[in-house]
Specification:
This protein is mainly alpha-helical and 199 residues long. Helices cover 59% and strands 0% of the residues. Helix 2 packs across helix 7. Residues 75-76, 79, 110-111 line the site of one fe (ii) ion.
Length: 199
């Protein structure tokens, strides 16, 4: 299926800066729009990673942590019911709900190759970086008898090199994302192993 580029690089309104949805509102949207449980889990996993990264690595306050988390939580919200409108639909929804432009922009840039929007802010870059790598690590946990127990960097790197493993996860995008975020891939992998929400 072809994903249609967004065709713009400005999202939301600066007047809405700092606005977010409440947890309840975000949860309701997720339940309404995403019926696929695996996809829900993926979105929750990326949300958790974003929130923890904002707290631990960026030292942001609780409101900002939640905005990072929200971007992760809703980044694939329209993929389940409207895959042909992926990113377009959720962006319009969040713009209509006057959500902070920073959050909307991060969602818009989570696949630069597809949506044609470059990740610029740290939030943009981290969402892009966590998206694919979190998925690969989750797939790896499912094939390990102990799941995440005892998972280490070495094992994840081995799976990354194995092109046939989780073949839909773009190694190219992972590399590109780490480069853009100026983060060592090892650091990112270790962070995900330590913080990933288990299904
Ligand atoms: Fe996506
Ligand atoms: Fe995703």
């Amino acid at each position: 299926m072809e994903i249609i580029p967004l065709g713009r690089t400005e999202f939301g309104s600066p007047a809405n800066s700092g606005n977010s949805l409440s947890r309840e509102e975000a949860e309701a949207l997720l339940q309404d729009w995403v019926k696929n449980e695996r996809l829900q889990l993926h979105m929750r996993q990326v949300a958790r990673l974003m929130g923890r990264w904002a707290a631990e690595k960026e030292g942001l306050d609780a409101a900002a942590q939640w905005r990072w988390e929200l971007a992760g939580l809703l980044h694939d919200a329209d993929w389940d019911l409207w895959p042909e409108q992926h990113c377009h639909k959720i962006i319009k929804e969040l713009e209509a709900r006057a959500v902070c432009p920073e959050v909307i922009r991060a969602i818009a840039s989570h696949g630069p190759r597809y949506f044609g929007v470059e990740p610029v802010s740290k939030m943009d870059k981290m969402l892009y970086a966590f998206d694919e790598l979190s998925g690969l690590i989750h797939a790896y946990s499912l094939m390990r008898p102990g799941g995440y127990d005892g998972m280490d960097l070495k094992g994840v790197k081995k799976r990354l090199k194995e092109k046939s493993f989780a073949a839909n996860v773009s190694r190219e995008d992972i590399q590109d994302a780490c480069q853009r975020a100026a983060i060592q891939q090892d650091e990112l992998i270790n962070f995900i192993i330590a913080n990933q929400l288990q299904g």
